[in-house]
Amino acid sequence: MLKTRKVICLFSILFLLLSSVCMATNAEPATQEKDDVLDLPFISTDLYLASNNDTVIDKPVDGNVFLYGQNVTIKSDILGDLFVLANNLTIENTATISGNVFAYASNLTVDGKVTDIYALSQNFTLNETANIYRDLKLYTDNCTINGFVEKDAYIAANTINFKDNTEGLVKGNFNYTSGTEANIPENAIAGKTNFTQLKNEQLSVNEIIRNYIISFVNVFVYAVVVILLIVKLAPKAADKLTYCLSKRPFITAGVGILGVILIPIIAILALLTGLLLYLGIALLATYVLMLSITISILGIAVGNYFASKFKNKTKAKTILLSFASVTVIWLLQLVPYIGTYVSTFTIVFGLGLILFALFSKKATDNTEVQTENN
Question: Is 129 buried (19+), middle (13-18) or exposed (0-12) by CB count in 10 A?
């Protein structure tokens, strides 16, 4: 248990250190002024920067740039690729990105010059002063194109808008997917325009029932494997899960909420540093795995609780009641209005049960006491 606490402390320290980190080797020492404006005359290698505040790059960078922040603004030249995870990303008209832009941002605005853009956003705006030297590949909700794309554009969007009376905005082909055909000015596209319409297919009753059955079978089979492994190979684990859920529900929920929020943040920050790449990948993989078994874990906790109410508690009763619990939880997730809350409850408590049972010595001690009493 001492080792476990050391691991938790290590992750906490890592998160605190990386919540506002800047690493640039072979460059002058980096300093952070107000709003995290990078105060360096020139950065001669890759730059890693993560901050919860506004992040501004206003000095040239001779290398790749990895950024995480609330509001990210690029004002200067970047001679490598730009990787951004942000709420708002703005590439101003004073900036030239010699490499590719890989961005995930709610709002992405481009005024400067970029080689290629690969982006996922809610709103994308290519203003008049913007120029994409090669291709634009974009998945967004709302797209506005007033700047130039020198080659091809590949866009999936709900709405696509062009400035009126514009010519040659896209020099190559314009390939787009949308629910309705966009109103494109006559000379805005120099190449071919290829439109793919999204179709809202109405499923028949038999198809809907079949999809539900397939979904249930997938969930149930996966749950069977998880439940059998835990109950057969680690019988005390079921008692620990039940203890955490029945005796410490608020702590379990709190641990679950923190786990849902902090684990992906720590993993992303580890990836952004470059130095902890494998740690970040491993943490993300573990996070996805834990989320995938939350319904099974919650089912075990509930099923074992009801199994303990019988005078003669057996593994068979725990397994069968765990199966039944998983089925009930899955059915509740399908109920309109409350299904979303049940799904959220399942994820939060399922993840909380995993983390609390693994790292809580008190849960282990109480389980051992209950086992001896039984």
Answer: middle
